[in-house]
Specification:
globular, 10-stranded mixed β-sheet, 213 residues, two-stranded antiparallel ribbon, mainly beta
């Protein structure tokens, strides 16, 4: 099965809510707007790019799972993108969900005066993602995920209603991505020319397969 690669741009829109039921006291909820760019394989001929704006509720389960419920979606181009003949289920969809910008103050770059590169909503989401990761595959102690968890690749199955084009998502796995600053042999950070922006590289960690209820 071919793997479709997507690029995601993220805006958080709501608080993390705590469930008050004692039976689900450890479940955490986030409401998210997620902009996903479709690859050329699924774009309508003649469209330079096509984005889907997903409105979603994410539920982090107590036993180490993640459910994404799509509550709404809008296409920037025609919603009638071509599906494989007779297929409304697409496996092996992967896209990167960005959490922070290493060019901002969290990276130690003095050009930015802000306290860090994440707002409180994003930080709460990052904390829940870190807990999910640590439940399945603890991150090496040489990394500080609160500062270095750059993004997460979601590996999903999409079930598409061919009439309404509504999409159901099933998260099968995630791949955490750590960022690190490039340094000289003396341990000094390397910046990019006159901009002062840090030069960094990305390290994907172990792919984690999730449990489902």
């Amino acid at each position: 099965m071919k793997t479709f690669i997507f690029i995601a741009f993220v805006l958080l829109v709501a608080n993390t809510d705590k469930c008050i039921s004692p039976l689900t006291a450890q479940e955490r909820f986030h409401h998210i707007i997620d902009f996903v760019e479709l690859p050329a394989e699924l774009n309508i001929p003649g469209d330079s790019a096509c984005f889907i704006e997903f409105r979603e509720q994410w539920t982090f389960l107590a036993k180490g799972g993640l459910i994404k419920e799509v509550t709404g979606q809008e296409f920037s181009c025609s919603s009638e993108f071509p599906l494989p003949d007779g297929v409304a289920r697409i496996n092996d969809i992967s896209y990167e969900f960005m959490l922070l910008d290493p060019h901002l103050a969290e990276s130690g770059n003095k050009a930015f005066s802000g306290p860090d590169s994440m707002d409180n909503y994003t930080r709460k989401l990052q904390a829940d993602l870190i807990e999910l990761i640590q439940t399945h595959a603890p991150i090496s102690p040489r990394y500080d995920p609160r500062k270095q968890l750059l993004s997460v690749y979601f590996h999903e199955e999409w079930i598409i209603n061919p009439d309404s084009m509504e999409i159901l998502k099933k998260v099968s796995a995630i791949t955490p991505v750590i960022w690190q600053r490039r340094q000289t042999v003396e341990g000094k950070s390397i910046d990019e020319g006159d901009s002062g922006l840090p030069v960094y590289y990305k390290t994907p960690l172990q792919k984690i397969f999730l449990r489902h209820p």
